[in-house]
């Protein structure tokens, strides 16, 4: 089945964040396509008498903090979320498709192999969403033959080749024996012995870019030979797959990353090989994974001294865990608290409050997120910058200071400089 000829690839971008850690060079080709909520009051955390409550400091209309999308690229940050993307809440339904070729035959359609990508990814994605997104997957029970030479896709180097055609060919090969109405996206495995399909990544096209008899898809994943071994290493196996699922959900690489080198520390979307994997609060806000009463939204123009208490961003309790101070319609300061947990490998000194600029005028690898502050602490050679009690940052007339900290969260003062 042919995919839409109206689709135009505007860019092919190498996934630099992963490429950086070398072991993890995952290519993502994401076609820019044409096309491409809602809210309420956040809860009022009550301050002690020294500080104003939110009522005084204004806002808490979460719409104020729904920074505008400034590009039609579906993975561009901001609101509203592109309607070509899969739903970010509810159930995300996925299928692994094994394929082979006349020049590279295989009989391996192994659930056990696919589970090395899926099972931990399911736990991770469901944890990041606080259970708002359930992730389920099937595995094709046979290997589907694509009657082409496996080298036609040219997937032998980052940024090269036609992964989109591979994914469409896999769907077409499986279509007679597969009910695609049961799925939201697919991942294609060539034979593990492939010598011609090396790279991996998420490949998005226009709405209905991939066609099957029952249903069309806009996004798919292909995993090549470079990513089919050494599956327990960082940036491989489940962490690589989870990063790609982040792309399927509409997240892109949030940090400035133009010149190689290791990717940023915070967030698996910033660096597929990071040891600090929890998605940042901004990503969870974008995906509607935070309940209204878990988000504090303030206007930078109207701030009076305000104190808030934030639980760690990973907390499953329904309480404040992400704060935004809106600076203008495309920029805000984000504040969240990070603690060591299953996914964040932080020591005591590295835990703390993270304060960052969110800028929706930026795109992939251009610095949608920038860690703020003058504290130049490093982890794995990259900026850490988490704040301890007594420390703070000042940015564009807004001061954020950590007052106190314990296991269950940090108390933070926000005021005008
Ligand atoms: Zn990526």
Give an account of the 3D structure:
It contains six helices and 20 strands. It is α/β, with parallel strands linked by helices. A seven-stranded mixed beta sheet has the order 1-2-6-9-5-3-4, sandwiched between helices. Helix 3 (111-128) packs across helix 5 (237-249). The longest helix is centred in the first third of the chain and has 18 residues, at 111-128. The chain is elongated, with a radius of gyration of 22 Å.
The bound ligands are: zinc ion
Q: In percent terms, what proportion of residues is strand?
A: 25-35%
> Helix and strand succession?
EHEHEHEHEEEEEHHEEEEEEEEEEE
Structural class call reads: alpha/beta
Helix content: 10-25%
Poorly predicted regions: 1-53
Shape type: elongated
Number of extended strands: 20
Please, what is the average pLDDT? 87
What's this model, at a glance?
With 417 residues, the chain is α/β, with parallel strands linked by helices. The protein has helices spanning 16-20, 54-57, 111-128, 163-174, 237-249, 281-286; strands spanning 13-14, 27-30, 90-100, 133-145, 185-189, 200-204, 210-211, 216-217, 219-223, 295-299, 306-310, 322-328, 331-338, 352-359, 369-371, 378-379, 382-383, 392-395, 398-406, 409-416.
